[in-house]
Amino acid sequence: MTEKKPETTATTTTDVATRGTGALASEQGRTSIADAVVSKIAGIAARDISGVHALGGGTARAVGALRDRIPGSRTNLSQGVAVEVGERQAAVDLDLVAEYGVSIADLAQAVRRNVVGSVERMTGLEVTEVNITVHDIFLDDGSDDADTSASSAPRVE
Length: 157
Prior knowledge:
The protein is 34% helix and 24% strand. By secondary structure, it is an alpha+beta fold.
């Protein structure tokens, strides 16, 4: 009688292929996802949350406002988003401006949940962390920030 040896399972890239809904690596080939793709997905997912006024720090928002004034230009969906993408995992850093009156803790939790869900669903990558930095609070005082003509008018006659 021959003794049957226990089968060993190889932990290769086939584990990635069976994880989640997407097959990033299989016997037929590999799928690589660029950082820009993950960055756009995370940016769109963060902007979807009520209470997020804008993404990016002060300089990034100023450059974005200038870019938006150029005819035919598009909004940079990955503004304020930095990512690190590996073969199976991704990490996301977000810089954002919150609207006044919104609980920042609740906002951060909602943004994290939406970013993780969107990135994992669309890419098949495991999101290891989503770090959020709140740079500012937006106060809606009824005036348009881009309109500076009212501030340059004389205050007295």
